[in-house]
Design a protein that fits this description.
heterodimer; A: about 120 residues; mainly alpha; 3 helical TM bundles of succinate and fumarate reductases; 4 helices; elongated; B: about 140 residues; two-stranded antiparallel sheet; 5 helices; 2 strands; about 5% strand
Chain lengths: ~120, ~140
Amino acid sequence: MIKRHPEPLLWMLFSAGGMLSGMLMPVLLLMFGIAFPLGWVAAPSYEAIAGLMGNPLTRLVMFSLCALSLFHWAHRFRHTLYDGLQIKHLNEVIAVVSYGAAVVGSGLAAYLLWQLG
Amino acid sequence: MSHPVNHGHVYTDYHPRWLRRRVSTYWWLEKPAYFAFILRELTCLPVAWFAIYLLLLIKALVDGPAAYAQFMAWSASPWMILVNVVSFVLLVFHAITFFVAAPQALVVHLGRTKVPGQLVLLGHYAAWIAASAAVVWLLVRA
């Protein structure tokens, strides 16, 4: 019997998350984390941003961004602890906690975005 | 065959154990390239942080205008600005290193010719600029 290994699936999620977060996160962080708070650009009103986020396409992009980015983090974090700190004996615990957090975060993202509709 | 010295040890004939030196926990401080590698790996932390930040923003939008105003005030506190500026620098490093690695994983063919890796990389940068411009346009127009 061929043993199915989860690594290719986890790598695909890591890869998709890395690509999407690379494309969208710098600009979103620049706007929401720096430009709006420092007043470089006027922050959108509640109605405007809620309207933008109410769009199903925006919500789909936001869900993919949050969920895939968390899986990207989980995969990279696990491997960094493994390679960088050489914490091999805790590998299984770290994997369960990392991917588990990504699953919980994705569920939370789906729940919150669903409520926004 | 007997191994009088090695009672209790199992040695298989065709699978020798290589001699491996124990690598220092701080091996990534030895060369700039190693440090860049570990820095690239650590960009996963701001990626996770910003995913949480987005979830908090969405939660504030669900809770209403007062919660949104509170989130924006919180994001303007000096500590948050500092965390987000550091995160922004690391996120840009993440984006660039990820796009640079992309041609290794993504081999594009046009007909029978392979598209050069540099062109695939340029495509990623073009998409990055377009996506960023679209987000800024949407947010400024809103």
